[in-house]
Design a protein that fits this description.
The protein is mostly helical and about 130 residues long. It has six helices and two strands, in the order ααααββαα. It has one domain. The longest helix is centred in the C-terminal third of the chain and has 22 residues.
């Protein structure tokens, strides 16, 4: 990995670990870009595409309430990256882990994995911050 890729990878990892507020902003941007069209800007399942779905779009602000008060971080991450078989519109929910790959390829084999995982983690942390 060249030095630029190492620097970018280190900066992203440091950002996620040292600056939760900045990570929250990254997560919010990911949410608005990838999730709000179905789940709504308020994450209550009322996005503009929700009425077109063949199954109800879940309210993402109640994930903790529906999990005995604990935010199901691992399940959320696995849902975003496609390891959980969530169905939406009669088909699996879009696999956002794969959606992120083309943007991250420029960081190299290991750097791209770090970038993808960082973006997914930022999104999951943002969802955690929305819990009622």
């Amino acid at each position: 990995m060249n030095s630029t890729k190492k620097i970018v990878t280190s900066l992203l990892a440091g950002l996620l670990l040292a600056a939760p507020a900045a990570a929250d902003e990254l997560g919010k941007a990911e949410y608005i870009s990838a999730c709000a069209s179905c789940h709504g800007e308020d994450a209550k399942g009322n996005g503009p595409l929700a009425e077109l779905m063949t199954v109800p779009v879940p309210d993402l602000t109640t994930l903790s309430v529906n999990n005995d008060g604990e935010f199901p971080m691992l399940r959320v991450i696995q849902t975003i990256d496609g390891r959980q078989g969530i169905k939406g519109h009669g088909y699996p929910m879009p696999v956002w882990g794969k959606r992120l790959v083309p943007d991250a390829e420029k960081y190299g084999e290991f750097g791209s994995e770090t970038v993808i995982r960082g973006r997914i983690l930022s999104l999951a942390l943002y969802l955690e911050s929305l819990q009622e």
